[in-house]
């Protein structure tokens, strides 16, 4: 997959670009609803012997449009989004810089510049997609703005139960610890990756060595607590338990939560390595224990519960 970053105005030449079927949207999470939009574009491209593309934006529009928002944490950060789109068979990814200039474009100018001038011949969008200044363009106006240059497919909302699948709903579930339900809407486990950094080594002292992960602050993490996780490392998958929190038994003044993972049946040195965590099941909230002994007894119970969970899941 070829990744192309664009800022308004871009300088790509129409006659040098292949005819393309493209899905357009922010696609945070690339959940089941997003995947339907993207797969439709990929299938249209194959059917019409075109290239497939995804047109997305970065950073999140709220960072530019809302004065009280300075930073957004993503369900699917940009690096993860790129890898997932490649697995979905997308040929090219256009990442449009969302800035004040872009937000000021009138709907017709947006379509002219970022759809027609990219040689898009078939555009696929979700039912709630909007574009142009103050979102004045929407799926009802795309045909009028297309200048009869491209066709449009609009994907109706995808539901789970009686509610539409949305990134907002997934965020709510993660913040309440309902990772299994969030994973159902995502169509896959929530994934977080990080580099193993040196920690305080208390886990090793109490018989449960942990890998302390340095995770980008762009990543949306679930609720504070203890989780059943799977760890992907060098093409191998391990079961384990992760602690997301402040480690209150030993630390009283930590400002930011940390992620520590104990990988079952694995004892090799991991410093400097990248681990990928799949979050599968919320076990319990973080607790401050009166002693290391109380903590160890609880961790032993956590391990038993998580091993039972994965044995039952398989």
TrEMBL record:
It catalyses: riboflavin + ATP = FMN + ADP + H(+); FMN + ATP + H(+) = FAD + diphosphate. Pfam families: FAD_syn (PF06574), Flavokinase (PF01687). GO terms for molecular function: FMN adenylyltransferase activity; riboflavin kinase activity. This is Riboflavin biosynthesis protein. Keywords: ATP-binding, FAD, Flavoprotein, FMN, Kinase, Multifunctional enzyme, Nucleotide-binding, Nucleotidyltransferase, Transferase. NCBIfam families: PRK05627.1-3 (NF004160), PRK05627.1-5 (NF004162), ribF (TIGR00083). Its EC number is 2.7.1.26, 2.7.7.2. SMART domains: Flavokinase. Residues 185-311 form the Riboflavin kinase domain. It comes from the Bacteria. Pathway: Cofactor biosynthesis; FMN biosynthesis; FMN from riboflavin (ATP route): step 1/1; Cofactor biosynthesis; FAD biosynthesis; FAD from FMN: step 1/1. InterPro entries: FAD_synthase (IPR015864), Riboflavin_kinase (IPR023468), Riboflavin_kinase_bac (IPR002606), Riboflavin_kinase_bac/euk (IPR015865), Riboflavin_kinase_dom_sf (IPR023465), Rossmann-like_a/b/a_fold (IPR014729). Belongs to the ribF family. It is an enzyme of class 2 (transferase). It comes from Lentibacillus salinarum.
């Amino acid at each position: 997959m070829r990744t192309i970053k664009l800022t308004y105005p871009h300088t790509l030449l129409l006659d040098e670009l292949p005819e393309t079927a493209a899905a357009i949207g922010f696609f945070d999470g690339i959940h089941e609803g997003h995947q339907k939009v993207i797969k439709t574009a990929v299938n249209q491209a194959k059917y019409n012997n075109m290239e497939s593309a995804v047109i997305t934006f970065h950073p999140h529009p709220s960072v530019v449009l809302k004065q009280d928002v300075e930073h957004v944490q993503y369900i699917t950060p940009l690096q993860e989004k790129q890898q997932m789109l490649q697995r979905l068979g997308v040929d090219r990814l256009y990442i449009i810089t969302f800035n004040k200039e872009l937000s000021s474009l009138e709907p017709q100018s947006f379509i002219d510049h970022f759809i027609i001038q990219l040689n898009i011949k078939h555009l696929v969008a979700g039912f709630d997609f909007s574009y142009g200044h103050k979102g004045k363009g929407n799926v009802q106006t795309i045909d009028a703005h297309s200048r009869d240059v491209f066709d449009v497919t609009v994907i109706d909302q995808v539901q789970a139960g009686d509610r539409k699948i949305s990134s907002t709903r997934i965020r709510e579930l993660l913040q309440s610890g309902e990772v299994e339900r969030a994973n159902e809407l995502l169509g896959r486990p929530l994934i977080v990756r990080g580099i193993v950094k040196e920690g305080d080594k208390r886990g090793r002292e109490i018989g449960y060595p942990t890998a302390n992960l340095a995770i980008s602050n762009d990543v949306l993490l679930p609720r504070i607590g203890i989780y059943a996780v799977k760890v992907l490392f060098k093409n191998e998958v391990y079961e384990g338990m992760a602690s997301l929190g402040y480690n209150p038994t030993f630390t009283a003044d930590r400002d930011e939560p940390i992620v520590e993972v104990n990988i079952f049946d694995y004892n090799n040195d991991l410093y400097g390595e990248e681990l990928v965590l799949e979050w599968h099941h919320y076990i319990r909230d973080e607790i401050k224990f009166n002693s290391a002994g109380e903590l160890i007894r609880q961790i032993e119970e956590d391990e038993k519960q998580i091993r039972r969970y994965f044995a039952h899941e398989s």
